[in-house]
Amino acid sequence: xxxxxxxxxxxxxxxxxxxxxxxxxxxxxxxxxxxxxxxxxxxxxxxxxxxxxxxxxxxxxxxxxxxxxxxxxxxxxxxxxxxxxxxxxxxxxxxxxxxxxxxxxxxxxxxxxxxxxxxxxxxxxxxxxxxxxxxxxxxxxxxxxxxxxxxxxxxxxxxxxxxxxxxxxxxxxxxxxxxxxxxxxxxxxxxxxxxxxxxxxxxxxxxx
Amino acid sequence: xxxxxxxxxxxxxxxxxxxxxxxxxxxxxxxxxxxxxxxxxxxxxxxxxxxxxxxxxxxxxxxxxxxxxxxxxxxxxxxxxxxxxxxxxxxxxxxxxxxxxxxxxxxxxxxxxxxxxxxxxxxxxxxxxxxxxxxxxxxxxxxxxxxxxx
Lengths: 208, 150
Hints:
The complex is a heterodimer.
Chain A: E1 3-8, E2 11-16, H1 21-27, E3 51-56, E4 59-64, E5 75-77, H2 81-95, H3 102-111, H4 130-138, E6 144-147, E7 154-157, H5 159-169, H6 180-192
Parallel strand pairs in A: 1-5
Antiparallel strand pairs in A: 1-2, 3-4, 3-5, 6-7
Helix pairs in contact in A: 2-3
Chain B: H1 3-12, H2 20-31, H3 36-46, H4 50-59, E1 71-76, H5 79-83, H6 86-97, E2 110-115, E3 127-129, E4 132-134, H7 139-147
Parallel strand pairs in B: 1-2
Antiparallel strand pairs in B: 1-3, 3-4
Helix pairs in contact in B: 1-3, 2-3, 6-7
């Protein structure tokens, strides 16, 4: 595997061929904010928060670091006014869904995003796809998936699979940046396979 | 729809995951909707997880996960038809079949849908049933047209 040299924020960084800009930046200790990235999963590129400026052949382009392949001689800028503005807008759009999500709040502070800029949306899901992809790629259970499209798109558990596997796994719960997933799970559980005796281990509030 | 018929359709397309959408389309056109049992059977035979089939079946408007009637009634509510009285045609249809847009009647005879333009504005107000266009409708004619469908 041959190595390539690129420049990230003025630093020379060596990366293996086929690595993404995000991986190269991480190996050089440059932090790029992400929401939909997970090291065990295939790059997905849905949250757009890792948007960076890339300069190749004299042109500057905005690309998404988590799916953009690093190339020899590439010059990457991970912070600039333009990028900060874009990330701030993206965060504000997410905050319309989940104004109090812990992960979003920290980023919002960093980028000065106003949580009340847009009217609140009913769904807490920001469609990062972490739960859907984790269940499919790592656990290979396919208990949760997307349904519909566009602004109606949402996550949806398959009750038959969820009833058998989810409670003992729950590995996707901590992945969710907004806890919309937990809500979706509790919802489908309450509707389709109510638990007789809920174990009170704190993951789901005990029902009286 | 029986599992044997679903199996026949799957076999016809070679039981490959790449043929998923074609198989779903054929079940849809034969049965007018996709019952859950059929989707489970397709997933089992093709080795495609149900979440993926669900995603595809909800993504495309050609598929329906709720029962649809034998006759699909589309009423154009586009600008030209609207001006020429599409609302009155729609009201008549709702009165005659007794369902609202997006619904299906109990004996699965009709499904009613509004659309935004059928592309034949000169014929407005237009109603399309199973792909056949009925143009320049009056409420009385509309009721007659509906009666001719079984």
